[in-house]
């Protein structure tokens, strides 16, 4: 019996006309080998491989046969539309054993019939068939969770090897990397329900209700800015995110955006604060193409572990759970345990050790923003949103403190939110702001809000932050944090 489907999904990702991309049947426990019927294209003759591929594409139940009830639909999928009587006659003609179905051998004979002249299956379907066989280890015609894990592990291993592939691709073009990235992002999005952590997912949906997968966010930003004339040739990208390695994984947001915009200038330090400061921003500004554009993405980050705990994360290669963001969680822990008045650098060795200028700054900036935290459902979620506001204000201050910005750039776009690290299922981003500032002769430029266009409605955060007052304070930019 000829198997199929999951492999077809993976193989066809980069193909523009891959009809099965949008109709992949993602199921909670198994990926069925059933599939939408693949279209065939004109050709002069069939090879044996072509015939097997064509049969593979229409054997929607992976039974190794085409039943009479599905025969007309199968022919339609091949591009041949017959009325019921003609289809029945053709079926009876080639159902040589009168078994009520057409098997592979009978199908090969059928395909030589003049009524089916001039059609040929897509070439990528054959590769898909072989790939499905590879992972359908028990030959059941479907891929269960265990078999899918093998696929997921291979995808993850390949992702870790992308840095080596990128070096090779630099000499031969980026096609390999681009195709792989598209496949990875699509598979991650469509099959994550098979291996996500339910409690982590539930917590994320409550605390970060409109969060997007990294790949979806990258696409939404690119689509919005493309309409405004942003291109890799005229745009320089900068990011202000925490220096934690979890924020720099292949196929996650920073890497995706650097890959899209061809380069990335790092402004961020611990907790995502732009510790590069105004001098760092000025250096970034001086790198912009002539009359070009700036794009800045900023975000604090937070982990969610398998138990649904915000501020915790199991990292690759570790069995225990650690803090994320350690700087923000540590700062809040110190302020909570010692009180704001006595929160000073210490000489301990744990995550609340503040013998460090960056962490000291985080404590000082976080302290005045903790009012109302007692009403929040989860204190670390509340803290994380306050870290967003702190980073936003500091990025604003960097731009405002560079009065000659319009001597170098004609537009500055700024995307802000919260990066959400997950052990499995891919990282997310809760967007909270997206604006662009256009050169108009003023010091600040003309501000245009792009959030609704890119992401839709803003999240309802009253349930997360505990009160409307806390939500209003989060978006209030009249009292800005300063380094």
List the keywords.
483 residues; alpha/beta; 8-stranded mixed sheet; two-stranded antiparallel ribbon; 20 helices; 16 strands; elongated; disordered N terminus
In short:
The protein contains 20 helices and 16 strands. The protein has 483 residues and is of the alpha/beta class. Helix 11 packs parallel to helix 12, helix 13 crosses helix 16 and helix 14 packs across helix 15.
Can you walk through the features of this model?
By secondary structure, the chain is an alpha/beta fold. The chain is built from 20 helices and 16 strands. It has helices spanning 6-11, 48-58, 68-77, 84-94, 104-110, 123-135, 145-160, 162-172, 175-191, 198-207, 214-226, 253-261, 277-285, 326-338, 357-366, 379-400, 405-408, 451-455, 462-465, 468-475; strands at residues 31-32, 40-41, 65-67, 101-103, 120-121, 142-143, 212-213, 235-241, 265-266, 292-299, 301-304, 312-314, 321-323, 409-422, 428-438, 446-449. Strands 7, 8, 9, 10, 11, 14, 15 and 16 form an 8-stranded mixed β-sheet that branches. Strands 1-6 form a two-stranded antiparallel sheet. A hairpin with a 5-residue loop joins strand 14 (409-422) and strand 15. Helix 2 (48-58) packs across helix 6, helix 3 (68-77) packs across helix 4 and helix 11 (214-226) runs parallel beside helix 12 (253-261). It is elongated. The N and C termini lie far apart (67 Å).
